[in-house]
Amino acid sequence: MAPGRPACPREAHVHEAGIADSILDIVVARAAEAGAGRITAIHLEAGVLAGVSEEALRFHWEQHAVGTPAEGAVLHLVQTEEPTDLRLVAIDVEDAAGAADEAATSRRT
Description:
Blueprint: H1 14-33, E1 36-46, H2 54-65, E2 74-79, E3 86-95, H3 102-105, E4 107-108
Parallel strand pairs: 1-2
Antiparallel strand pairs: 1-3, 3-4
Helix pairs in contact: 1-2
């Protein structure tokens, strides 16, 4: 383990690392297309076919987002009984100006 890096939970497998990386690529690209400055939250829905460990996905999300516009963004994951895979529902962003009142500048893309 690298110095200063938190221990990876037992179930944090490569599967979730790849998913976190893919999500990051998608949300950063969409936020840039929308002219957003910072990503504040990601909203996902995982059906039973996703096979995703929420704890592992959160761990890898936090690690992969460091140094990107998504650093510090909250990952919201709703798990359903639907026979579906993982789905990106929404991205909450701040305007590029980064106005002080986050509520006034937040929007979903």
